[in-house]
Amino acid sequence: MSIPTEGEKGAHREMGAGALIVVTINGLKIFMKEVENVQDSKTVSSAAEEKREEKMTDAQRARVERNRQKAILLKQARLANHPYGQDKDRHKVKAPPRTIDTGAGFFIEEDEEDQIQREIKHPLGPIIPQISERLLCEDCGKEFLESYLHNHFDAFVCDLCRENKEKYELITKTDAKNKYLLKDADFDVREPPLKFILRKNPHNPRWGEMRLYLELQVQARAVEVWGDEEKLEEARDQRTANKEKAKQKKFDKRVKALRMAVRSSLWRKEMTGHEHVYGEETYNDDDDEYSKTCTTCGHVMTYEKM
């Protein structure tokens, strides 16, 4: 294949024709007209298809039509059997569950559903209230839009005042029950239930999550349960006294058991048998029998004389 010279190209351009492509086959040059735009290429392809159809016989056209109708029927049957593509889920292969080393000598399997449930869900941002709906801090009296204590404990305290950790301290449920003498029902059942947050146990992360309450709210709930702080102090003193009594009673019991153990180790049981010491002989006229009674244990021996 050769490329036309500049002179040949220029000559043909002067004649108003497009670019030429020269093909040399066995020394014979064949000049072909190059299509200038897409519209001309489409025209050429459509003309070629028309020529191809003209060359097809009636039998070939009938076979093409039958194949086309058959393809349409197959497509309609497939759509009728599976209109919504329900068979797609049947061929899905579920990946094997991922195993997690618990560090306690065994493995656990984590499924995709568990992994989806453990996905972190970010809470939605607060709705910006109007000026008349803004919150007032109970400590400093300033307005604020949102705060950590208000979002988690419904406490009207801004984040600046929250930095006073001694006043707004968090307390675990176990410590709150021991310190304020409360029960589980006082936290969850009594209205309104106290708000809390969940945190990992710092002593061992494998243990259950611990509940943290706002100590001010726990203290208010204790006053509500006991009546006032004086009765709460009396209950604390009574519980302390009961603990001391139980402790002393347990100690006395252990001392008594120790004394009994010491006494039993000093006492030696006589291994010899008992020897009866009988008194005077008595006679029974009704039964015609004689009897003797042991002076030590009271055993009675009866016998007859020939």
Q: What distance lies between the first and last C-alpha atoms, to the nearest angstrom? A: 160 Å
Number of helices: 10
CATH architecture of one domain: Alpha-Beta Complex
CATH topology of one domain: Nucleotide Excision Repair Protein XPA (XPA-MBD), B Chain A
Shape: elongated
Alpha-carbon Rg, integer:
53 Å
Please estimate the helix content: 40-55%
The SS-based structural class is alpha+beta
Mean pLDDT: 76
InterPro entries: DNA-bd_dom_put_sf (IPR009061), XPA/RAD14 (IPR000465), XPA_C (IPR022656), XPA_sf (IPR037129), Znf_XPA_CS (IPR022652)
Keywords: DNA damage, DNA repair, DNA-binding, Metal-binding, Nucleus, Zinc, Zinc-finger
Family: Belongs to the XPA family.
Subcellular location: Nucleus
Explain what this protein looks like in three dimensions:
The structure is a single chain. This protein is an alpha+beta fold. The protein contains ten helices and twelve strands. It has helices at 6-14, 38-55, 58-81, 112-117, 148-153, 159-162, 173-180, 184-188, 215-226, 229-266; strands at 20-25, 28-33, 98-101, 107-110, 135-136, 143-144, 170-172, 197-199, 210-214, 282-284, 289-293, 300-303.
